[in-house]
Amino acid sequence: MSLSVSFRHRFTNLELQIEFEAPTPGVVAFFGPSGCGKSTIVMAAAGLLKPDTCRIELDGAMLADTASGVSLPPEKRRIGLVFQDARLFPHMSVRNNLRFGMRRAPPGPIQLDDVVDLLGIAPLLGRRPRSLSGGERQRVAIGRALLTQPKLLAMDEPLASLDGPRKAEILPFLARLKTTLKLPILYVTHSTEELASLADTLVLLDAGRVVAAGPLPEIMTRSDLPLARRDDAGAMLTAKVVGHDADRQLTALQAGGARLWVPRLEHEAGTVVRARIPAREVILATEKPTQISAHNVIAGTVHGITAEPTRHETLVEVALDGVSLLARVTPDATESLGLVAGREVVAVVKSTSIEILPV
Amino acid sequence: MPGWDFLSPDEWGVVLLTLDVATRSVVFGLPVAVLVAWLLARTHFPGRGLLDAFAHLPMVLPPVVVGWLLLLIFGLRGPIGAWLFNWFGVRLVFTTAGAALACAVTSFPLMLRAIRLSLDAVDPGLEQAARTLGAGPIDRFVNIILPLTAPGILVGGIVGFASCLGNFGAVITFAGNIHGKTQTLPLAIFTALQTPNGGETAARLSLVSVTLAIAGLLASQWVSRRVEILVGR
User: Fold this and answer.
1) pLDDT at B225 over 70
2) What is the ipTM score, two decimals?
3) Mean of per-residue pLDDT scores for chain B
4) Do A173 and A260 belong to one domain?
5) Is B219 inside a domain boundary?
6) Could you give the 3-state DSSP secondary structure of residue A257?
7) Any domain includes A286
8) B130 in contact with chain A, both atoms CB, cutoff 8 A
9) What is the chain B residue with the closest CA to A44?
10) Domain of residue A326, residue span
């Protein structure tokens, strides 16, 4: 099952040319600098913007295809859209906002009570949008879109207008949405935190073009892409909790062929978590160090290496059995270790440097 | 406090007629104003600027000229007037309905502006949201635009009503000054002033006029506050 999107649109100052494919269900995230056209993608998907040419195919069904004249208006397209600014109807209660789309959609599997539970909005039902906080509004907007029984959910920076704590409040709901409803989701963001927590497929955009598209872990550690040059660059690994060592107060995770030790987690064995390893926290060595406080010493090979002369740094992508890490080292270290593509190395990561993402 | 006998039965007749004329003007003029406001705010068509100017014309034209133009169009020999008379036997000139038409036309820009202001304050993004939620054009108009514009529509109605109570030039030109038929408050006051010893009648009717105007303005303030709370603005 897959989602395939291609469209072109000429604005006065930007020519958009977007093409990508992604497995479904899953979250496809669009990431790029502002003005790169990422919001346009969801507007076009929902039909609010008519691109010059557009083709959206979801699991074999054509949602839009200008070539064959299939271009449903937004009201018939069955794509749930969540705007950055919620756009709740101010003259209706939260309950009536939720029902607005529901009443106009064919019956489907998504029930009002389930959505209210999932998003934790039961106490808000009788209230007016004006009295809600930003985070509450956004949750109601997500619920309202879900209740239209959409075939696809599109979110345009749903957390951008919220501050840190509010974001943290909604992120788990979004993650839950993804696992419980199994809906394909298009997600526009400029936050690497949201990317790492939610995305399965990442589409990197710049100036209206797709720079790279593929599975998130792969794209995040590519040393040649702009993501790797960010201060918060790092690897995202999907890992399974293997077990806990109560005496040492550690938890063992398995990511691909790599075994990782992190400070004790509360998750049960078998739970799948997402772990982030920042590039600046990874130490590279050419032989296994002994007598070291770091718990994670993993053998791998240098996969890609990109010099970053302006910052006097080198970005090294290390492939370990089935997963990859990104390390940020100095050109001096690169030279003294003789780091080149294909070189066998050992990556050293402190267990306390591994961030477990809230999923 | 003066009792009901403050005004003579004849003068009460004038007040009631005035209210009747103003009510008819608002009932027929307001829906048209809503439609025109929507066309101007939300659609693009050739001649839109012309419609905008035309709709606001009665505000800047002398009311007498408005009345005369109405005579040209709705008079028995005017294009619409002749048609109405020949097909439906409806005559507007020198009738109460004609007075209402004259009032509606002159107060139209006031109603239009109030509605337009309110409509411009409605975020088009809400209409986009309604579209993605499956609402078609009429659905959106009825369930999103109308309720959110309600404060402006009500205020437009009240202000329009109040201004109809005071129209002189257009009414006297188009509908004449016929006692019991088209003689509204301002016309009656004017007539009283022309009559020897009519000063007292003129003063009483003027007092009524001032009272109605103030009541109208206060009502529009109160209503707009209440309704804005109601629609969650």
Assistant:
1) yes
2) 0.82
3) 90
4) no
5) yes
6) coil
7) yes
8) yes
9) B132
10) 234-356
Residue-wise pLDDT for A7-41, tens only, equals 888 888 888 898 999 988 889 999 988 878 888 88
User: At which residue do the structure tokens 């989602």 appear?
Assistant: A3
Two tokens, residue A289: 């160090």
Cα–Cα distance measured from residue A150 to residue A106, given in angstroms and rounded to the nearest whole number = 10
- CATH no. for residue A307? 2.40.50.100
Residues A103 and A201 in one domain: yes
The reply to whether B125 touches chain A by the CB within 8 Å rule is yes
Per-residue pLDDT tens digits for A84-119 = 999 999 999 999 999 999 999 998 888 899 889 888
CA A72 to chain B, closest CA, distance in angstroms equals 11
Q: Confidence class of residue A159 from pLDDT cuts 50, 70 and 90?
A: confident
**Which CATH number goes with the domain that contains A71?**
3.40.50.300
Q: Is A72 domain-assigned?
A: yes
pTM of the model: 0.83
Output phi, psi for A302, to 5 deg: -70, 125
d(CA B25, CA B97): 9
Helices (H), ranges, B75-198 = 79-88, 96-120, 124-132, 137-140, 146-165, 169-174, 185-194
For residue B142, count CB atoms less than 10 angstroms from its CB and return exposed for 0-12, middle for 13-18, buried for 19 or more.
exposed
Q: Do A91 and B232 touch (CB under 8 A)?
A: yes
A223 belongs to a structural domain: no
Residue B85 domain flag? yes
Of A85, A91, A101, the CB nearest to B133: A101
Q: Which domain holds residue B226?
A: 8-230
User: Does any domain span residue B165?
Assistant: yes
How many structural domains is chain B composed of? 1
The two tokens of residue B229 are 């709370």
pLDDT digits (tens, 9 = 90+) for A309-331: 788 889 999 988 888 999 999 99
Minimum Cα–Cα distance from B148: chain A residue: A91
- Name the pLDDT band for B233 (thresholds 50, 70, 90): low
The answer as to whether A137 is a domain residue is yes
Last residue of a domain, one of A153, A181, A216: A216
Gyration radius (Cα) of chain B, Å: 20
